[in-house]
Amino acid sequence: MAALYEGFTLCGLVPTQNASDSPIQGIELDGDSDHAVVTDSTRSVTLYKVSDQKPLGSWTVKQGQLLTCPAVCNFQTKEYVVVSDNKVIRVWKDEDLNIDKAFKATVSADVWRVHSAPGGEPVVLFQRGAVRLLDSLLSAPQQPIEDVLSEEEVIRWSTNIVAEKQHFVLFTTEQKGEHFLYVQRLNPNTLQKYRLEREDSGAPPLSFSASLRDKHINLLYLYPNGCVYQSVVAVRGPVELEGVQTLPRSLRLRLPVGEGKLGAASAVALDEAHVAVVGMPHPSARTGKDFLCIWNTNFQTLQAGKEMVGRIHGPVWCYLGKLFVPHGKALSVIPYECQKSSLASALGKLRHAGIAVSKSSVAVPSWNSLLHGDQPQGPAKIVDTRKSKLSRKSQSATALNVDQVLELIKTGPVEEVQREVEALVSRGDAQDLQLSVGQLACHLVARSQAETAFYTPGALAQLVQTQCLCHSVCPDLLLLALEHKDYFLCQLCLQLFPDIPEVVTCACLKTFISVPDGDVEMVSLEPDSVSFMEGLVAAGDRGGQQNGFSPPLFEEDSCDAHHQPKPPQHQDKKNPTLQLEACPVGLHKAVLLNEVLQTAYSDNFLLPHLKDLNAQQVILFLQYLQFVYLKFSQDVYTQTPGLRSPTMTQIIDWLCLLLDAHFTVLVMAPDAKGLLSNLESFVKSQVKLFSELGKIEGSLQELHKMKLSKDISQYSIEVIELF
Amino acid sequence: MGEFKVHRVRFFDYMPTAIRAMAFNAHTEKLALGRMDGSVEIFNFADHYFQEKVIPGKDSRSIEALCWVGGRLFSAGLNGEITEYDLENLRPKYSLDAYGGPIWTITSNSQGAHLAIGCEDGTVKLFEVLEESIQFERNLDRQKGRIISLSWHPSGAQIAAGMMDMIRVFDVPTGHAVQRLLVDRGFGGSKSRETVVWSVVFLSDCTIISGDSAGKVQVWDGHTGTLVKTHLVTKWDVLALSVSKDESSVVVGTSEGTVIQFQFIAPTLQQQDKEWVRTRTFKNHTHDVRALAEIETAIVSGGMDTQLVVRPLLEKFDERSYASGLRKIHFPHRNLVSCAKKAGLLLFQFPGQLELWRLGESDGHGKPGDSLPLKRKPEKLLHLKRKGEDHICCSALSSCGGWLAYSTMSSVRLYRLQTDNNDISITKVPKLPKVLRSAHQLCFSSDSSKLFAASSQSSVLIIALSQSECKYVHTLKPKSGSRQPIHLMTNSVDGKWLATANSDCEIHVYNVQKLKLHCIVPVYGSCPSAIGIHPTTNNLINVHADQQIFEYSIVEKQYTDWSRKLQKQGLHNLWLDRDTPVTHVTFNPNNPEQILLHDMHMFCIIDQSLPLPDQKTQFYNQMTLRSLSGQERPSHLHAFKICKTFQDLLSVSLLDDQSLVMVERPLLSITSQLPAPVRQKKFAT
């Protein structure tokens, strides 16, 4: 998991005349980890103590001069280096008050950037691609500087990296629409040139970020169409001097870009699994692109998001657990945290093993099927093929491809869209589906959100049933289904999506509880779950108790007697079985609640959202949970294998969570009193059972011991036989 | 093979005493072990940790510390005496009072020229080591408070002394204290208690490492007297410290029974600066670890729980071998039980007394695995307390049950036993021959007409016994001139042969009738741990500490064919891998093919008529054989029939009525008699 914490403003920004330019040229680290050197786009350099949000020093060049490269700190000498007017290198120290009085040297060619990294000397990258160590340059400032790049080639981005005492300068260039990456090694100096693959749109990359991991330089770059690619350059590889190689790349993320292309956006790698992206729309927020999001590239899931007020200017810096984002009129510092992610934590609480087995084909988009072409085999798939045969008959030549269907979704009438999507889904094979289903669903949902009249429940249900969708791919789907009271789709989503956020689960729960029974009973739901619920309700007075629970719940022990007055539903307490049989909610409502019970969740995240329920809803849900619990513990109830059903632990967990979330409310509510006292007696009976078991444990262990040591007498005469 | 009736005896309340001190001689690879009762044991680590010698204790002697100077062994104790041991005669050579009150520690400098002792009165006394004795040289500056621990700087110029609440560093030439290192007291309630610096080591780079009663291991800079690092390792005491030869590792023993290793290494890779880092914790003891030695490849530890543990350092081994296994030595490698085969009596030897028991009887018959009903219970006939301060070092019971003898360091006593039905009378034989002053081993001839007593320089005295008198007959002397003590002695049933084994690994066979040396068995590199002479063939079976078995024909003076075959084929690896030596060999007179052996964990009958197992054969095959049918069985038989039903065996013997006597001493009952260990908080207790 990753999280963004509450940020703070480091400094205000002065908007530039040219709207596309960032008001900040660069942010660099000082020797002190809490210091940041901020260079604005014109004339001044400011040193901040980040945690105090306080400037420690500021240096400005004379009017008429211009800083052309961000100031860096020379970590070896603790001096600052900046370039003004492309050619003048200035070096000064903390104590120097006036930058103009500090050391300066004019060099013979235009400087692009000065780079510095801890553990390495500062290096100067010239606009024509030459690289010099700062020290050697300053010793002979007027030395001739060669041209590395050809005439029309311009540097777009550069950075430096120190790896295993080897110093690298990386820079990308653009020449006639083509992009190149240069990797310059220092000492010994070698230069390697790579060609970046062209993106289909031909658009230039928006941002680059390079990081060192496992002796490889990982280059991450973002295109305006939302694709984040990663390329890997070996630190110690064989150096092939001649030739321009194409740099292999792999797609790490395909971000939703919403309408239009991205303007100022950038992506920066936080660790091997997490990428921070600014200037992207949030998938579940409708408008605007002013978000800072952390995505998990392993699972393609959104981990955290934050809206940034004002226009995002583009670049983002990441130092020591903090993101520096210039936006609007401020530079914000946002601390973040990335934890090692595992699938389990990404998906919330582990699902019940039994369910996992019975639904072995349940899949988040399966990497295997994408990469190795494994055919997902599952019950749903078989259904699909049957359907596909049918539809193939009805469908003849008018089969549309994915793009055409996508176009159709934007404008076409409901019936046609429905038909074409169904046809496409039933026709397509696994690989294609994997990629297109998400797009189809997103477009359908987007259209439905835009036009209230447009809603295609059948098509959506079919898309969900392909099991290629998950919540992160199309986050609005479930909410849309709730909005349209499409309970069947809700049920499907709850069953098949492994990554529903707790807030959505809670929203579902809230809707399900508050919906009138009549509304739900009309809806057709998944038959298996309905039949399970029917069986549970019907399983009546066959007697026999499990788990030591006995209906003399209302034992006439002294403390229980005080719980007067009992609420109306507990009035006939002498006949508890009768009272227990009445399910507090309707059959279909119960089915839906069961689905909620079985979704994956993390306690910590669920708890705050549970508080949104009102007292009546909580009491009703508690009554239902109590009913299911009693059924489970009272009847000689055997779980039918293969049938999806909540487990005892899930029920208990939810009971506990609900009580945790609303305890004070429940204690105060008069109609919850009976319920609470009932629950208390469950607990009592369980505690009693366990204490009894504990007592037996001792004797059982004694038995065990007795068997082992049969004789410890001082003396015996025995007969042995040797062979 | 057959059924045996087994007397399973568990009423021998043998109780080893706690280990108090330890000194390892890296040159000879011998470990000297001092116990609470004042006895000293010598283990030969080059020869499978065999317990070569035992010097019996004495009531007034206590050992606080042991120290080797070359091949000489010194001890000091709270009785205020320094003792040097005569390792050839297994007795103290001399003791001298240091006149400083109880002595807490003794240590020699690396040159072996001086001994330093730490006394209760606050003095460190230096003794010069002379050829035959030691001589007091001088005192270092007297301090307030006792000197608990001492350590010489390897150069010999300085001594670190652990005291109460502090460590002093003395300059040896001047005798002045040059440093005073104050040791903190414990936290909380123990703040008011003085901290005892139980142990201190002085390294050649002038680092001082100390272990104290507040549970700290502290590293000090001896030049400046500053504390470098404190490791709090236990809530209880850190009792013992030992440094490896190359000074790269220090082990400490605590009251919790743990042994913790510290190593002098760089805490992070690529860093040059080394420091003392706590690396490993071993928990092989339940009680105080009082004595420790870090040897080349292992950590040797011992303490209140009486066992000696050799914990190998596995990084020093490339492959699994005998030395790479964990060793726990619980029992002495010699017999404490004598059995009168004809009379069905058992004699148990304790340091302070002897116990004579008559075995029970049963007339029932039963299937294998059954316990038979007892007709008569075992009976303790005699409880004989020793006279004098010296502990009993050996004892013997004649096979007819009519004679009993024991020896201490200072005297031998012989008793005549008479049993009429249930009455027993014991008479001390007066006037033993003057030559019979003490014995390392005693044994009676099988017809009870002679007593053999192993005396100094591997000689054997023969005493003729009769109703009226006992008379010195002859002294048998080995030709080799070995000065080592005899630790094993046995004679043949026909009374003709007597075999002795000494710590030089020599086995001598004497002709008792002709009263002369018959032959010397070719010397084998490992010490014999058990010898026996076959009753019919007069072949000598000797089993060595390295588990090898030899059969030597006394008459033909050469190894038998069976022995050659066994050596040629080699013993099974599982046999060689056992970690306790065979301590007794006996024979079945009714079936001359059978040799009975036992060690602590098993009892074995070797049937010489059966094929020897090769490496592929299933060695422990009794269970398999049991499951096979009568026809299939013969093809699976091999010579070694091993029974592990009986554990923690102290003695196995075969009575004349063909029933076996197994004397077990379960380790659990030893543990249950130990004092309670220090309280350790576990969870919510």
From TrEMBL, chain A:
Q: Which GO terms describe its biological process?
A: maturation of SSU-rRNA
- Keywords per UniProt: Activator, Nucleus, rRNA processing, Transcription, Transcription regulation
Cited InterPro entries: NOL11, Nol11_C, NOL11_N, WD40_repeat_dom_sf
A Gene Ontology cellular-component term:
nucleolus
- Single GO molecular function: RNA binding
Major localisation = nucleus
Q: Which domain of life does the UniProt lineage start with? A: Eukaryota
Domain (Nucleolar protein 11 C-terminal) ranges: 428-723
Nucleolar protein 11 N-terminal domain span = 1-336
Please give the Pfam families that the UniProt record associates with this protein.
Nol11_C, NOL11_N
Compartments (UniProt record): Nucleus, Nucleolus
Q: What is this protein called?
A: Nucleolar protein 11
Automatic annotation (TrEMBL), chain B:
The terms under GO molecular function for this entry are: RNA binding
Recorded hits in SUPFAM superfamilies, A to Z, give: WD40 repeat-like
Name the PANTHER family on file. Answer: U3 SMALL NUCLEOLAR RNA-ASSOCIATED PROTEIN 4 HOMOLOG
Superkingdom of this protein's organism: Eukaryota
The UniProt entry, under InterPro entries, shows: UTP4 (IPR046351), WD40/YVTN_repeat-like_dom_sf (IPR015943), WD40_repeat_dom_sf (IPR036322), WD40_rpt (IPR001680)
Name by which UniProt lists this protein: UTP4 small subunit processome component
User: Where does this protein have coiled-coil stretches?
Assistant: none
A GO biological-process term:
maturation of SSU-rRNA from tricistronic rRNA transcript (SSU-rRNA, 5.8S rRNA, LSU-rRNA)
Q: Name one GO cellular component term.
A: small-subunit processome
Pfam families registered for this protein in UniProt? WD40 (PF00400)
> What organism is the protein native to?
Hucho hucho (huchen)
